[in-house]
From TrEMBL, chain A:
This is Alpha-ketoacid dehydrogenase subunit beta. Coiled coil: none annotated. Keywords: Oxidoreductase, Thiamine pyrophosphate. GO terms for molecular function: oxidoreductase activity. Residues 4-179 form the Transketolase-like pyrimidine-binding domain. It comes from Psychrobacillus soli. Pfam families: Transket_pyr, Transketolase_C. Its cofactor is thiamine diphosphate.
UniProtKB/TrEMBL annotation, chain B:
One of its GO terms (biological process) is pyruvate decarboxylation to acetyl-CoA. This is Thiamine pyrophosphate-dependent dehydrogenase E1 component subunit alpha. GO terms for molecular function: pyruvate dehydrogenase (acetyl-transferring) activity. Residues 20-317 form the Dehydrogenase E1 component domain. Keywords: Coiled coil, Oxidoreductase, Thiamine pyrophosphate. It holds the Pfam family E1_dh. PANTHER family: PYRUVATE DEHYDROGENASE E1 COMPONENT SUBUNIT ALPHA, PYRUVATE DEHYDROGENASE E1 COMPONENT, ALPHA SUBUNIT BACTERIAL AND ORGANELLAR. Residues 278-305 form a coiled coil. Transmembrane segments: none annotated.
């Protein structure tokens, strides 16, 4: 099968949906001729024109509200926030407006909007351009939160996000943009709320999100050499969360490690751990649940420090060994 | 530049409708205020008594397809746009027959069927939403215009500036309608901004603007007509600043220490938008005293009926608590 990058897969999903549905359009800063800060929208303005690939002022408070207002009146906007960190300036429109509109209006309005959020560290962009704040969003009822870890998932999840009638926050990891994977050209959708078992195993369940899925898979290869069989589960969407797939795996392996790049403290991994601990599957556990996350520090600039601030493959290997008392 | 009835192009029937619509708003506010004092409505509310002319006048040029965004002080806007008294009363009483099935309350009344995109509990939040609704109109060639109501307090929020700039650069069909009632909660506009007229801020974004008497319903209607016509022609947004005054405090907890009783009395006695308009209509023989009394009775009957409807409506079932939320 043909291979495309994560970035191209997202672009393809958006373009295919825009060809099918006039109501779908994209807006954001520098997404026109420039092609977006990461080049994701390259070529789109040429195909769809400036009306549907709307280059906006640097004005997150306005463009996020504009997207919500357009969605309330029948459009299906995709909003690119140039770096996920800039969501702070759009927060009122996302948390106080988009998330609540349907409910507080008694179900008489809907906000079908996708907000694309390039996030994560590792690119040397330092503290204000490298965060992973997806857990904030998962705390707000009314928002769906998606975090694809590979190109195939990114395309299928983007399509589901565009077709969803509720606000969806779509976190893209910057370091994954140029990773390649097999992606069919045809239309396919991955329903929101369906986890994926990226690798089967019998000793430990690793629940990892975004780029940590890839790191967990690398760690699994190392661990295999030492006779430890790891199962890697990617929830793919944090809200809604596919609890059944995770719990089934825990039942089988009896040991759990949760890995995420965001700051460990109050990160979404804590929610996954609680979910397991509160379930009937708790009785199956042979060891305390372990959690690996980012240190409680702003992301530093220096590449060595930057790397040390978030979990790496070797950290995952070490944690798994501890879980196996090795 | 006060406009008198002699100069207007509106028909006697239209003028009487404007008066009636203002009377409905005043009566609605007085009714819910009483219910609140009696403990039959809970929470809080922000009354627009004294500001009826801005809501009614600004909605005069609007069709059912045109839209509004409103504020925490939004009962008047909703009524002027065609949202019905009964459903609003039921919403304030938290009943299942309310516009939001009892889940929104005073600050979130919305009625999309008549183009009312909703009140808002966040100051200035309606302006960016209005640009989005206007973008839909423009992209789908739907021809409708959006009037975004907000207060003087909103004009110091970033959202005000960013939304007007966006609407300006994209020539969106929006009318930014500022009800300058002199106070954002307790903050006097004189203490909170350093410019004489909020309308001056239009120049910063390259759009026309004007300051008008917001207690003269005809002046409001005609200024909004010009702005709406401009928006419909694809020429982009306008900023209107209408001077008005809220007779009541900000909300129920307000002891009004930040303004004088003399000032309040002056606005109530000299610049009541309803009394002054009624006097003009009577003076011009457009309205008879008996007609006015009949209108007054009609309004009262409508309120009585709405209160009865709301009180007889069911509380929302507990089963609905988690409805209409999908994540």
């Amino acid at each position: 099968m043909r291979e495309v990058t994560y970035l191209e897969a997202i672009r393809e999903a958006m373009s295919q949906e825009m060809r099918k549905d006039d109501n779908v359009f994209i807006m954001g800063e520098d997404i026109g001729i420039y092609g977006g800060a990461f080049g994701l929208t390259n070529g789109m303005i040429e195909e769809f024109g400036p009306e549907r690939v709307r280059n906006t002022p640097i004005s997150e408070a306005a463009i996020s509200g504009c997207a919500v207002g357009a969605a309330m009146t029948g459009m299906r906007p995709i909003l690119e926030i140039q770096f996920s960190d800039f969501i702070m300036i759009a927060m009122d429109n996302i948390v106080n407006q988009a998330a609540k509109t349907r409910y507080m209006y008694g179900g008489k309005a809907q906000v079908p909007i996708v907000i694309r959020l390039p996030g994560g560290s590792g690119a040397g962009f330092a503290a204000q351009h490298s965060q992973s704040l997806e857990a904030w969003m998962t705390h707000v009822p009314g928002l769906k939160v998606v975090q694809p870890s590979n190109a195939y998932d990114a395309k299928g999840l983007m399509k589901a996000a565009i077709k969803d009638n509720n606000p969806v926050l779509f976190y893209e990891h910057k370091l994954l943009y140029n990773t390649k994977g097999e992606v069919p050209e045809e239309d396919y959708e991955i329903p929101l709320g369906q986890a994926d078992i990226k690798k089967e195993g019998s000793d430990i369940t690793i629940v990892a999100t975004a780029i940590m899925v890839n790191k967990a898979l690398e760690a699994a290869v190392e661990l295999e050499k030492e006779g430890i069989s790891v199962e890697v589960i990617d929830p793919r969407t944090l809200v809604p969360l596919d609890t059944a797939t995770i719990l089934e795996s825990v039942k089988k392996t009896s040991r759990v490690l949760v890995v995420y790049e965001a700051v460990k403290r109050s990160g979404y991994g804590a929610e996954i751990v609680s979910m397991i601990a509160e379930s009937d599957v708790f009785d199956y556990l042979d060891a305390p649940i372990r959690r690996l996350g980012g240190l409680a520090t702003p992301i530093p600039y220096n590449p060595v420090l930057e790397k040390a601030a978030v979990p790496q493959v070797d950290d995952i290997v070490q944690e798994c060994k501890k879980l196996m008392n090795k | 530049m006060s406009i008198s009835i002699k100069e207007t192009s509106h028909s006697p029937e239209q003028l009487k409708t404007m008066l009636y619509d203002m009377m409905v708003i005043r009566s609605f506010e007085e009714t819910v205020e009483k219910l609140f004092q009696q403990g039959r409505i809970h929470g809080t509310m922000h009354l627009c008594i004294g500001q009826e002319a801005t809501a009614v006048g600004a909605c005069v040029p609007l069709t059912n397809e045109d839209k509004i965004t409103s504020t925490h002080r939004g009962h008047g806007h909703s009524l002027a746009k065609g949202t019905k008294v009964k459903g609003m009363m039921a919403e304030l009483l938290g009943k299942e027959t309310g516009y939001c099935k009892g889940k929104g309350g005073s600050m979130h009344i919305a009625d999309l069927d008549v183009g009312n995109l909703g009140a808002n509990g966040i100051v200035a939040a309606g302006l960016p939403l209005a640009t989005g609704a206007a973008l839909t109109s423009k992209m789908k060639n739907l021809g409708y215009v959006v009037v975004s109501f907000f207060g003087d307090g909103a004009t110091n929020e970033g959202a005000f500036h960013e939304a007007i700039n966006l609407a300006s650069v994209w020539d969106l069909p929006v009318v930014f309608f500022c009800e300058n009632n002199l106070y954002g909660m307790s903050g006097s506009i004189k203490e909170m901004t350093n410019i004489a007229n909020i309308a001056d801020r239009g120049a910063a974004y390259g759009i026309p603007s004007e300051t008008i008497d917001g207690n003269n319903v005809l002046e409001v209607a005609e200024a909004t007509e010009r702005a709406v016509a401009r928006a419909r022609e694809g020429k982009g947004p306008t900023l209107i600043e209408a001077h008005t005054y809220r007779w009541r405090g900000h909300s129920r907890s307000d002891a009004r220490k930040y303004r004088t009783r003399v000032e309040e009395k002056e606005w109530r006695q000299m610049r009541d938008p309803i009394a002054s308009f009624k006097e003009q209509l009577v003076a011009e023989n457009i309205l008879m005293e008996e007609e006015y009394e009949a209108l007054d009775k009609k309004v009262q009957a409508e309120m009585d009926e709405a209160v009865k409807f709301a009180e007889n409506s069911k509380e929302p079932s507990l089963d609905t608590l988690m409805n209409d939320i999908f994540a």
